[in-house]
Design a protein that fits this description.
- With about 450 residues, the protein is of the alpha/beta class.
- Helix content is about 45%, strand content about 15%.
- The protein has 17 helices and 18 strands.
- The protein has helices at about 5-15, 30-35, 40-50, 75-80, 100-110, 110-120, 130-140, 155-170, 185-190, 210-215, 240-250, 275, 305-315, 325-335, 335-360, 385-395, 425-440; strands at about 25, 55-60, 65, 85, 150-155, 175-180, 195-200, 200, 205, 220-225, 255-260, 280-285, 300, 365, 375, 395-400, 400, 415-420.
- Strand 8 and strand 9 (about 205) form a beta hairpin.
């Protein structure tokens, strides 16, 4: 075995037996090399191997810190924390009766004649007239409903975003984006060769002056925004902010991609940007959070001038909806499944929010009674990566460090996002209590 791997094994053993704990800082690589009598180049390979194994994380300007031991045979987190692991990273809400409601439509689709139609061939980007009509009440909100003729379909919300950006931003082009944003957006942008330009945020989302300044510095091809229940901050822009953004889009001759994936949870939110500047906004949405990620459909509401370009992007990127999923979504929208499940999830989100307020009352939170997540600004001396590692190892709870949402490489917000949607209420309550105790105990 090569020397650097043998040394990495010894460090891993120290992590596993508790001599090195999550949050502990490793010495600088030159110091590590001297202590072990190895070359600096070997120390660099040791640190790289430890990072590859998921044992350490490097923070620019701060050093290298222990995260947590990789999985052992059996439930390692149970051994460390004394509790079953709880995933508060994934965020897919499921409510009582949801599967039974969805099964009704799937039973109808199983009839041979109906199934043959759903599986005959991939649908076009604009689906079917029935699918477009069914999409309208799913996407509509107070004071606004899309024209059925403006609706296109993707395989998921992420594919809808990819298609919109592919149509709007050329390779090498600049996309304005919230400085904290939807994590998969970075992967989509990298795949398409798009440069992300972080935009400063306040309590209502993107600041209009930040958008204007970024465009003056070098023209933006488009901007990506989450005006309602921004992920991860749970911020919602008010009427005046939305009006200001719509006017700015017109003045700058810019098009926005408005992500409304979580907006269904807040029935009292203002009308979307797409209602205020329909010629300047591509609205994207999906069924993954309303219903289930395993059988979902993405929606795009597209201005007429962009319809052909976005439809071509959907086709060329292989991002169109599957026939069976589109047929199921059309039935779920028409038979009341979507509306019933949305109502249940709104109530469920409010109940989970109440748990957060009770368990994390002494913490600095950004959240909303309509949100299935909260943004937790950690108390000193915690750092986000260190807290996330300690939460997994000591409390048996997985949370997402703020760096996962940073649009700028290397940015490390001192916060974590806590997803609230997935575990049962009692499990969530206990997990939040353990996180609160960990935060107050400190990293010592």
């Amino acid at each position: 075995m090569e020397e650097y791997r043998r040394i990495a094994d010894r460090v891993e053993a120290a992590v596993r037996d508790g001599r090195l704990r999550p949050g502990d800082r490793l010495p600088p690589q030159r110091v590590f090399a001297r202590r072990h009598g190895i070359a600096n180049s070997t120390a660099i390979r040791v640190y790289g191997e430890l990072a590859r194994r998921g044992l350490v994380v490097g923070e620019v300007g701060r050093g290298t810190f222990v995260r947590a031991a990789p999985p052992l045979p059996g439930p390692a987190l149970v051994e460390a924390s004394g509790t079953a692991p709880v995933d508060l990273q994934l965020n897919y809400p499921v409510v009582d009766g949801q599967q039974e409601r969805m099964a009704r439509a799937l039973t109808a689709l199983a009839r041979p004649g109906v199934l043959a139609g759903a599986l005959a061939r991939p649908p076009a980007a604009d689906g079917t007239p029935e699918a477009r009509d069914a999409a309208v009440p799913v996407l509509a909100g107070p004071g606004w409903a899309p024209d059925p003729g403006s609706v296109l379909f993707a395989g998921s919300g992420r594919r809808a975003v990819a298609a919109a950006l592919s149509a709007l931003v050329p390779p090498g082009g600049r996309l304005g984006v919230e400085e904290l944003t939807y994590p998969p957006l970075r992967a989509v942008a990298e795949r398409l060769g798009i440069r992300l330009v972080p935009l400063a945020l306040d309590a209502e989302g993107v600041r209009p002056e930040a958008l204007a300044a970024a465009h003056r510095a070098a023209p933006l091809a488009a901007v990506y925004l989450q005006p309602t229940l921004h992920n991860p901050l749970a911020a919602t822009a008010g009427e005046e902010r939305r009006d200001a953004l719509a006017e700015l889009l017109r003045r700058l001759d810019l098009t926005a991609v408005e992500d409304a994936t979580w907006a269904f949870l807040d029935p009292g939110a203002p009308a979307p940007l797409a209602a205020r500047a329909p010629e300047r906004v591509v609205l994207v949405d999906s069924l993954s959070k309303r219903l289930a990620p395993g059988l979902t459909v993405g929606y795009l509401v597209v201005p007429g001038r962009l319809r052909a370009a976005v439809a071509e992007a959907l086709r060329s990127g292989a991002w169109t909806a599957d026939g069976f999923a589109l047929a199921a979504a059309t039935r779920w929208a028409g038979d009341g499944t979507v509306a019933e499940t949305v109502a249940a999830k709104r109530a469920d989100a409010a109940a989970r929010h109440a748990l957060v307020l009770r368990r994390l009352a002494r913490q600095a939170l950004r959240t909303s009674p309509h949100a299935y997540f909260c943004w937790w600004e950690l108390p000193a001396p915690w750092r986000a990566e260190t807290f996330a590692a300690a939460a997994a190892a000591r409390a048996g709870v997985a949370v997402t460090p703020g760096s996962a949402f940073a649009a700028a490489p290397g940015a490390a917000p001192g916060a974590v996002r806590v997803g609230l949607a997935s575990p049962p209420h009692a499990v969530l309550d206990a997990a939040l209590a353990r996180l609160a105790a960990l935060a107050e105990a400190g990293p010592g």
